[in-house]
Amino acid sequence: MNARLEFVNKYRLLIISILIVSVFTHLWNVDGFPDIFFDEGIYMHRAMHVLNGLGPQEGSFYDHPFFGQTFLAVILGFIGYPSSLHSSGDTNSIAILYTIPRIIMGLLAVADTFLIYKIAGKHYGQKVALVSAALFSVMPISWIFRRILLDSILLPFLLLSIWTALQSKNSKHITGLVLLSGICLGLAVFTKIPAFTTIPLVGGIIFFSNTKRFKLLALWIIPVILIPSLWPVQSIEAGHFNYWMHDVFYFQTHRVGGADLNVISKEFADMDPVLFGLGIAGIGFAVIRRDYLILGWFAPFVVFLYFIGYNQYFYWIPVIPVMCIAAGVLITKSFEKIPKRKISKDGMIVFVLGICAFGMIGLVQLISTDMTSAEYSATSFVVNQSIGNDTTILASPTYTWIFSNVFHKNNVPLDYSQILFEPINTTKVVLVADPHYMVDFNRGRQIVDMYNSTQLVATFDDDISKYFTDHYPYQSLRSTVEGIHIEIREKN
C-alpha cells in the first residue's frame, strides 16, 4: 500500500511540475511575443461585437461559426473588459488590451497540457502521459498557442471530448460521460468546422468501448450535430442563409493567399525540427502498431488540410497534441525494448530531459523577444491624435477594434480592404500601413492609390535583424513580422 501511494505521489508531483512549467511557457511575456496577428484583431472585434450586445454574428460574412467569439466575450465580460481597464491611450494601456485575452489563451494551453496527460495516461500509461505532456509544454512550436485564434479555443473542448470518451469505458457514469463527450465535440466543431475530422475517432471510441454501443453512439451524436447546427439556424433567422451557403461551400474552398500542406509542414519543421521529427516518426510507428487513437486523430485532419489547399502554420494546432503523444509512445516503447531495466529507465530519463532542455532553451529565447512594441506605439499614436468626424481611419483589424470599441472613434471600417468595395465618405484619412497592408497591394488598385495619396507622418519599427531568422530557434520570427515596419500616413 505504501509503495502504491509513493508511486502515485511521484507521478502527481511530476505532472504538477510540468504544469508549472507550462504556466511559464504559455504566459511569460504574452504582451511582447508574438506579434499581434491580423486574425487576432478579427476575433477580438467579433468578441467586442458580442460584448456590445449586437448579437453573435457580425454582418453577413460566414467564414466561421460564432461560438469562438461568444466564448471569448463571456469570459471578457465576466471581468468587465474593457471598461474595467480604464485605458488611457498610452502604450502600456494598449498592451493590456491584448494581454488579457492572451492570458486566457495561455490558461487554455495549460488546460491542454493537463488533458494531454489524462488522455495519454488513460490509453498508454503514466510514462507516455508524462513524456507527452512535457513535450507539449516546452517545445518551441507551443508559442503559437499564445495567439487569440479559434484553433486555440477549440482545442480544450476537443481534448475533453476525447478524454471523456475514453473514460466512459466500464464507467458507472457512462451516460453522462458519453453525453459530455458529444457536447464538447459539438462545441469544438461550433468553434471551427475542421474539428469535425475527429468525429470518426471519438465516435469509434464510444462505439467499440461499450456494450450498449448503438444506444450510446446515438446519444453522443445528437449534440455533435445539433450544437453546430445553431450556426445555419442563426443565418436563416437573420435572412442570410444564401450568404451562409455561399461562404461555407464556395468561399472556404476557393480562398487564395494561403499555403499548401507541404509549405506549412516545412514551416513546422523549421520552427520545431525535433518535435516535428519525433512526431512524424511516432505517426509512422503508430502505423506499424495499428494504433487507432493516433492514426484516427492525425490522418483525417491532415487529409482535410491537403484537400482544402488554403492553410496557415497555426492550422497544426489541433494535431500538435497527438504528435506529442505519438512521440511519447515512440520514445517509451523504444526504451522498453532495452533488456537491462536500469539502462532502459535511466536512458529514457536522460533522453527525455535532454530533448526537453533543448526545446525549453529554444522556446525561452523566442518568448523573451519583443515583437509588439511598434504595434502598441502605432495604436497609441493614432488614439492620441485629434481626429474629427470628417476623418476616416483605415487600418487592419489588429487596430480597428481598439479605435472603434475602446476609444469610440468614428468612421473606422473593420478592415482597410473595404475600400475595394465601397468608397470612403470623408475627405480626410488616417492610414495605418503595416506589413499586412503592403502585402495586399496586389488585391486592388484602390489600396495602392490610397497609400500613394497620403503623406507619411510617423513610423514605428521592431528590429528583427539582430536575430538569425534563418537558424533555429529564430525561424519562428519569420511568422511574427506584422510589427517590423508601420507607417502612419494622412490625407488632409
From TrEMBL:
The keyword Lipid biosynthesis does not apply. One of its GO terms (biological process) is protein O-linked glycosylation. Pfam families: PMT. One of its GO terms (molecular function) is pentosyltransferase activity. Residues 17-216 form the ArnT-like N-terminal domain. It comes from the Archaea. InterPro entries: ArnT-like_N, LipidA_mod_glycosyltrf_83. It is a multi-pass membrane protein. It is found in: Cell membrane. This is Putative membrane protein. It comes from Candidatus Nitrosotalea okcheonensis.
